[in-house]
Specification:
This protein is α/β, with parallel strands linked by helices and 376 residues long. The protein has 15 helices and 13 strands. It is 39% helix and 16% strand. Helix 1 crosses helix 15 and helix 11 packs across helix 14.
């Protein structure tokens, strides 16, 4: 078709359905692959659902885009998508968000398994989704196919649970978005972020999808206790889209506490750095993460981070975060108070540590690994 050595198909159809950390990984790694293409022997075929995603409408010379039509997510993913894939000739089929469709059998299919939370914390997912992903991950890992994951922690769990050889598991870390990597302060954008998201003067911040696995209930309980005990006088901002089982997040809290908790909803990338930058402290109480992007974003903005010690988080955050034992309310309260009491000199050192840690994670570097270690 192009008269080149290699064709790589990348499935971006999930971008039409949702936009969480998984979809951001798919979008960002693909953008870096096609824009900074050091391998002139590779041409990319990008697969979209219903329309070409906004970020890819500017056509690169090494890219062909294909749009598939569909509505029902399950029918699209397991019937329409595999049918289309079987008609497209490629040397590699890369699935950066979710595993390859169950009925797509190709030894050059490379599926991404971001984590194995369906085994490690099944109660934090809907039951039918837990079963679905167990089936899909087993199929993705079966045989001699390569898989991609986002941390050494997830790699080890995939080895243990799915009995996959370590030589067939490739760690491609998340990076930080352009809005953080190339950040330049703009006073008007800062004002817009404060106004649009109704940010208080001083606040603790947590950004994540509002769902059980993120353990936001632990955070609001710790905050409620600190407020009631008179140990803090600061608001709490919860940023991110709503997931599932969030209706009881504020149940049984004191009215004074509820009045000081602010929900922003989804935050636009152009304003996201300012939502971080205006916070006193970023708190990440998650029970389980394959990687954990938000605390790294906070660090890149010079904001101290308090995080649970769950799963991949110690690996990703290194010695630049303040850790508390997973699910431990008293430990969380202790670390919040610890950070809020730091001197200016201590905060300056933590800021430098955090920025240095965040700089380790680059989409450019990870795309280079993917190109040279997997597309061979």
């Amino acid at each position: 078709m192009w008269g080149v050595d290699m064709r790589v198909l990348i499935d971006l159809t999930s971008l039409a359905d949702n936009f969480s950390g998984i979809e951001r990984f798919a979008l960002s790694i693909t953008k870096e692959l096609i824009v900074d293409n050091k391998r002139k022997d590779i041409k990319y075929i990008l697969l979209f659902k219903n329309s070409i995603h906004e970020e890819f409408k500017s056509i690169e010379p090494n890219v062909k885009s294909i749009v598939l039509k569909g509505k029902n997510k399950l029918i699209f993913n397991q019937v329409i998508l595999p049918s289309a894939l079987m008609k497209i000739k490629a040397d590699y089929y890369f699935f950066p968000a979710f595993p390859a469709p169950f009925f797509f059998f190709n030894k050059k299919a490379i599926s991404t398994i971001h984590d194995v939370g369906c085994w490690d914390c099944p109660s934090k997912n809907k039951k039918y989704m837990t079963v679905y992903f167990k089936i899909m991950y087993w199929k993705a890992a079966y045989g001699n196919k390569q898989v991609v994951t986002v941390s050494e922690f997830s790699k080890e769990r995939i080895q243990i649970i799915l009995k996959k050889s370590p030589s067939q598991i490739n760690v491609i870390y998340d990076g930080i978005a352009d809005c953080f990597e190339n950040f330049t302060y703009d006073i008007e954008k800062n004002k817009k972020a404060i106004t649009e998201y109704k940010l208080p003067d001083e606040y603790l911040l947590c950004l994540s999808t509002l769902e059980p696995r993120k353990n936001l209930r632990l955070l609001v309980e710790a905050y409620d206790q600190l407020l009631t005990e008179g140990k803090v006088n600061i608001d709490l901002v919860l940023a991110g889209r709503k997931g599932w089982l969030v209706d009881d997040l504020l149940a049984n809290l004191k009215k004074n506490t509820v009045d000081r908790i602010h929900f922003t909803g989804f935050v636009d990338d152009n304003l996201l750095p300012y939502v971080y930058r205006n916070a006193r402290l970023f708190v990440f109480p998650s029970i389980y993460e394959g990687f954990g992007v938000p605390p790294i974003e906070a660090m890149s903005m010079g904001i101290p981070v308090v995080s649970s010690d769950a799963a991949s988080l110690p690996e990703v955050l290194g010695n630049a975060a303040f850790f508390f034992p997973n699910r431990d309310c008293e430990g969380l309260k202790k670390e919040i108070l610890n950070v809020l009491s730091l001197t200016e000199n201590e905060l300056s050192l933590i800021k430098k540590k955090g920025i240095k840690q965040a700089q380790k994670f680059s989409w450019k570097k990870e795309a280079e690994k993917l190109r040279n270690n997997i597309f061979i």
